[in-house]
Amino acid sequence: MAGCCGCFAALKPRYKRLVDDIFPVNSEDGLVKNNMDKLTFYAMTSPEKLDRIGHFVVIAMDALDQLLVSCHSHSLNLFVESYLKMVQKLLECEEPDLQVLATQSFMKFANIEEDNPSYHRRYDFFISKFSEIIRTAGLRGLQGIVRKTITDDLQVNIWENVHMDKIIPSILYNMHNPDFMSVDLESPKDEEHPAYIAETVFRDLICRASYGNVKSTLRPILIHIDNHQLWVPNEFAIKCFKIIMYSVQQQYGYLVIQTLMSHLDKHVKSDPSIKTSIINVLYESVIISAGGSIDVKRILKLLHVLQMFCNILLIVFHTYWLTSSCIRISVDNKSSEENQRNKEKKFEEAVINTIGEFANNLPDYQKIEIMMFIMAKFPQFGNEDLGFGTMDTQLQTMLLKTLLKTVTMANTFPPEFLQPLLRISLLEDPIMRLIVQEILHTLIDRHDNTNKLLRIVIPKDISQLRLMLEKVQRQDSMFMKKNNVQFYWSILENVMMESNKVDNFEALYCTMCLISIEMGGDDILLELLRLGLDVQQIALDNHLPLTHQCAIHGLVAAFLNLVSQLMSLPPLCQYVSEVIETRRREAKYLLPDFAFNRTNRPTRYSSIKIM
């Protein structure tokens, strides 16, 4: 019978006999070396047989896969070590088809849930090898590693730097490789594309990160973006952090923002475009973070992050502004100077929008805290020494614009916020004074009347303005009675500023009208009437430019027209109307149509005399 078997064996093709002969009697002995040499020589001299020889590997791997799936979970550990050695051997070979075969098998293994912990199993080789194998096979392998190891504390800790430094760059390379970036990732036909798979693995990794591991993943991501100069343009960086913010567990979102801010701090001396890009990435991340449900703990975390963020941004902005100022001094080329200013503008907008977005979804009382925090950054009002010396006007303007972006409430006017804000309204720069008035508009306006009052006009009936008029709330009336002197003093001082432009006068008019509408009880309206007359007296008593005198008279005429109708006193309304009509006939330059006409030239004022 044995002889018969030998006869049948002799009938096998030579390559099959050579393959059979490499297997030892005892598995511990390994391959039969002499027979393996014979098989190798045969393969070299008959390369057309290689495909058939390799098919035995596929069959062997298929057998291992079936055994793997069939094993009961409690006995799986007894088999896995032998199985993983087989997978490792296939990955070590240079044949791509065999590497893909090994990866596919490993993915099947990764999807098996094991009941018993594995005390001695190591995946270091697989992490390194899958990270080296670019595109689909390597990415699928990394996905299997993540799924297999992340829930088992006894297995390799893939969050360690040594592993993250291999896994993250491999994933990101496939995501931003130019060959892949043009693919339409939304299309189902691209689900096997490496870019699509890389993004899937990336999301899978981020969503599994616990509190202590979030920063472990972010560190190599930021290093990769830095090393490959992916901040400018920043489409890829924004895409990465959008994926992160949507994938990370919601309660850990602030850690991402915190890490980005720390990274911004490291780039204080970097090119302005890089800092702008990082802030834009922060902005997109904040939008996503703020979009979730707001709870007390989350608010406190965001506020803590905001304070850190403001401090970093102020230092970054100040450093940037000093640098750009030096550049402006040395720049002779007009186009270069314009390009520099465009960079500055983009940077300012990025800073303002990002801080504003932090506050956008918070309740009013938290916005007040944020406003007070920003206000404290002005050296004349805060106790903090930021090391800036005398703060640059541009930096103060940026802070005010940030404040304007932050102020979005319509229910409460913080009294503790009023006095420092009104003091800022007296700074020399007209742009800063304008921004302060815009902040006041946002705080005072309860019924969206601001846009209807930005242009100074004198309608015969104020109903033509389509203002939303409701009974003044008691709390607003009480607030105004307590603080009216501060408001009036600020308005009178602002009117006298010789650096005022048309925009400044229009903003002051809007402020006066909003106070009358939103806070003007009977007693307050009477005081406002007196304020209007006091403003008019400024034009008569002070040696202001003629343009300013005309503007003040025009402002007062429009304001008294509105207040008299709000007070519903027919004799007063008639008197104001008669004065306005007299001016239309004899002194049009004392009315808004002339005084606030931006096309006026100095020659139009040459014949005017105001007594």
TrEMBL record:
Family according to the record: Belongs to the EFR3 family.
Top-level taxonomy: Eukaryota, Metazoa, Spiralia, Lophotrochozoa, Mollusca
Highest taxon above the source species: Eukaryota
Pfam family of the protein (one): EFR3_ARM
Name of the protein: Uncharacterized protein
